[in-house]
Amino acid sequence: MNATFFDGKVSRAHPAQYVRTANAIQIAYTDADAVEHQIEWPLTEARLATWNPAEKTRLQFGPFPHQYLDVETADYNTHFVGDGQLPQPARTGLYEFVLSRGFRGVVIVGVVAVAFLWILYAFGVPVASEQIARQIPAEQEKQLGDMLYRQLETTGQLDADSVQSGRLNQFWRATGIKTRFPIQITVVDNKEVNAFAVPGGRVVVFTGLLKKFKRPEQLVALLAHEAAHVQNRHSLQQLIRSLAAYVIVSVMVGDVSGLTAVLVDNADNLISLSYSRQHEAEADAFAVTQLAGHGIDPMGAVWLMEALPTEGDVIPTLLRSHPHNAERVAATRALAKKSRIRGQPNAALLTLWNQIKRN
Ligand SMILES: [Zn+2]
User: Fold this and answer.
1) Is the preceding omega at residue 199 within 30 degrees of 0, hence cis?
2) Quick one: CATH architecture of 2-89?
């Protein structure tokens, strides 16, 4: 008897012939490459499909994606009904549901799929980036950071001021603040109000930002804040996040080795890397604790934020990468107040500070 066969792999229909035997349906069909196939469905495993688009009777077999056989309803009535009629599937599958709803079904599934992907992206990417960052050994993070830094250097984006860099490194050491990665500071001659942390230990400060500072506590707070981004591997995680699409693919194919090349190609991301609120809060808390712990007024972290305008014609890059608002300032102020420390920078810090400002 004539029928139409769907193999469950492609949507194309194959012309077919079938015979119903005592306990099976034998099907012969020709595929798109003109190859002939003979298959057999045990009768006990064949079902009557609930969705029936061709106004024929549709038989289905196997797990999703099912095979289908569209037969003439008259043939089905003659050969199946009254003689072991096939059971109907218990439940309509998603595939049948979508198709049975026509265009609306496709739209519904599309909306659900987009919502699902969005949720995966919004919640999955931060988790995935943290997981990936954790898999990268500290030594490799340092190498990656050096590569990124050199990439920025060779593209002429880092015009280092070696004298000021030397002073800032001395200044940082004089604070006594210790981090897991040794921090290496570079001062870059650039009017932009910016500073950024490179994975593995480098911190870059633009002269445009240094000019905004009125007190040494602000500089200590900035360096401690950036050091926290390095120490907590925020920069690495954020870089990975900013390349989420690559990350998703590399996780899916189980290969994170290609990631390094992609990161280096996108070294520019470092300069305006935008941190999450959680990372900012962690870095602020680190700065307050470290300042207080080393006898420096932790209000420096608040003064640092106050030195940067949040409104006006030019929003500093530093604010775009380390966004702060009234809430963040208030939270930092509360932390600083709680520490009850009102220290003074030590003599060495003050001397270096004066040299840095005199520049
Ligand atoms: Zn920050």
Assistant:
1) no
2) Roll (2.30)
